[in-house]
Amino acid sequence: MTLADPATRTSAPVALVDVVKRFPGLTALDGVSLELAPGEFVALLGPSGCGKTTALRVLAGLESADDGHILIDDRDVVDVPTNKRDIGMVFQSYSLFPHLTVAENVEFGLRMRGVPAAERRQRAGDMLDMVGLDHHAERFAHQLSGGQQQRVALARALVTQPRVLLLDEPLSALDAKVRVGLRDEIRRIQTELGITTLFVTHDQEEALAVADRVAVMRTGRIEQIGTPEELYSRPVSDFVADFVGLSNRMPAEVIGGVVVIEGQHVPLIDPDAPSGAVHALVRPEDIVFAADGEQHARAAVVVTTSFLGSLRRTRVRFADGVEATLQHEVGHAPGVGESVRVRLTGRPVAVSRA
Amino acid sequence: MSATTTLAPSPVTRWVILGVVGAVFALPIIAMAEFTMRRGLDGGYDLSRWITVFSGELGPAYAPVWQGIQNSVVLALVTVLLMLVLLVPTMILVTLRFPSLQRVLEFICLLPISIPAIVLVVGLAPVYQVISRMLGSGTWSLAFAYGILVLPFAYRAVQSNIEAVDVVTLTEAARSLGAGWLTVIVSVLMPNLRRGLLAGAFISVAVVLGEFTIASLLSRTTLQTALVVASKADAFIAVIFALLALLFAFLLLLIIGRIGRGRPGRTS
After folding, report:
1. Could you give the C-alpha distances from A95 to A89, A102, A287, B177, in angstroms and in order?
2. Which run of H or of E encompasses A32?
3. CB-based contact (8 Å) between B263 and chain A?
4. Which of A63, B85, B185, B204 has the smallest count of CB within 10 Å of its CB?
5. pLDDT, position A250
6. Has this prediction a pTM greater than 0.90?
7. pLDDT at position B101
8. Phi, psi at residue A299, to the nearest 5°?
């Protein structure tokens, strides 16, 4: 069996069913239910303290669930200890065993499963080759960079061909460039191996970039689960809209199924939103510069403008003092204090009660 | 950085400090060595007493010293064993499963340092009556008392190593890879806590080799109690044994230090 042969690999369905986890004075998981299809890559996204890491640790068996069921391959593993759950896990902090070489680290899980030495070496070598570190096999953890250590940790987690891969913010200790590179590598390897994966992160960009589906958590509950596109374009709550992607919170009013923002009528994501004063959550790319005399355009003054490489963000202030951020192409570079005209694109927006 | 450089003592100051500290340690040892080589009232020096010790020509009066050395080595081994079998797993357990008990464990472990040996003996005497009935009155049983005595020193040595290594993450990583608890402790934690364990073991051995009060008051023969007896017969020979005990401890330190460096690839 080769490592890159998905046909011989068993990727299991995983489910958390009404899982409850309480700590003294805190309910970390308040009836969390989540299903992962075989081979699916799901990201758990949320702010610090929302319970996403606890959910992953409960799935790993590192924390016990107070209530509910955890199913791996349709078998309830609530009472199965971590070392018997057949999982692979990559941690936020560097977790390579300092006294072992890279190759010995990767072989560790195979050794625990009684795999013969020759096969261990072969499989560890193949996996290190997959993460591009086969030439570092005899090094120790302290001789590797942070990114290299996490790649070895990934190889170590995958070499045993676990039924589920758990990633607990594995990129958060890395610098931005390495983070993006490793993020794409994780996705490539996961797709290649077809392993069911749960990825915990607080970085919405990271979650949207790699996951098949994203579950947004808030105070121990899953607020919304869907594809990145669904979360971004059809958030079910202002929390999701606010957390997933950058949003402007603009005072507005819902009247008869539409929302009026700075005098412009815009459709609602939730057409049943009750009438009244609200805050409209408008994406920066849903506000654009307008030509003089263009319908619905409003006058504003540029407050700040930032060059972000492939795009530019400009903050403007309307006559009533409301401020909003626009995202636009870099070729247009308005000066601070310049008078401009802007309008909304008219794409549906989410609202929250004012 | 420059502030650090300014605040650091100059090389001369460092050498002076090193010299003074070195002299404090070296002078008594040199004086002891000089004492053992004195020829008597007529003056002059020779190695006759050292030759007597190493040629095995010491009389039966010195038999307790040899017995004391044997007993002390056994005591040191049993004490270290107790530390490794009882203290270290307890510390690992508290770190991993009961972190809220960290302070309690620290308090308990540091407690013996604040209790005078004589007070300990008063408390231990009735306990040893029970121990003697159950396990006999062999000198090795003194290791139970020494196990308490070395707690503060061994605890600090091991704890500093536990704090330096991310024990929790290493354990969780090993568990997620399929390791049972015994494998986690023996194959993952012990190798990474080796420096702390060796330091704790060395300090324990040093404490055991130097302990006199408890052994004397509980009427056991150890190196220290035997030396006192020997010094009454011949103070010169007693000092030679004291010097040899110091040399033994020094060699032990060197050996442990060398082992503690670990595998060649580990040190950067």
Report:
1. 10, 12, 45, 12
2. strand A26-36
3. yes
4. B85
5. 92
6. no
7. 95
8. -75, 145
Judged by CB atoms closer than 8 Å, whether chains meet at A88 and B172 is answered as no
Asked if the Cβ–Cβ distance from B265 to A97 is below 8 Å, we say no
Per CB-CB distance under 8 Å, the chain A contacts of B183 are: 112
The two three-digit tokens of residue A18, written as one number? 């009404």
- HSE toward the beta carbon, residue B246, CA cutoff 13 A: 13
Query: Is A29 strand, coil or helix?
Result: strand
- Yes or no: say if A303 and A345 are a contact pair by the CB < 8 Å rule: no
**Residue B24 to residues A7, B203, B247: CA-CA distances in angstroms?**
74, 20, 17
- Please name the residue of chain A whose CA is at the shortest distance from the CA of residue B170: A95
Tokens 């193949």 locate to A126
Average pLDDT for B143-148 = 92
Read off the pLDDT of each residue in A266-270 and give the average, rounded to a whole number.
88
- Distance of residue A261 Cα from the nearest chain B Cα, in angstroms: 50
Report the C-alpha gap between A219 and B103 in whole angstroms: 31
A132's tokens: 């591009």
CA distance B264 to chain A (A): 11
State in words which class domain B61-261 has. mainly alpha
Q: Which of residues 93-152 of A touch B (CB under 8 A)?
A: 93-99, 101, 108-109, 112-113, 138-140, 142-143
ipTM given for this complex: 0.83
Distance CA A86, CA A79 (A): 14
Residues A99, B263: C-beta atoms closer than 8 Å: yes
Break chain B into its structural domains and give their ranges: 2-54, 61-261
Judge contact between A87 and A112, C-beta under 8 A. Answer: no
Q: Is the pLDDT of residue A242 over 70?
A: yes
For the stretch A213-241, pLDDT in tens is: 999 999 999 999 999 998 888 888 878 88
Neighbours of A62 (CB within 10 A): 22
Q: What is the mean pLDDT of chain B?
A: 86
Whether B174 contacts chain A with CB within 8 A: yes
φ, ψ of residue A49 to 5 degrees: the values are 85, 5
pLDDT value at A343 more than 70: yes
> Mean of the pLDDT values across residues A158-176?
91
Place of tokens 């050498």: B15
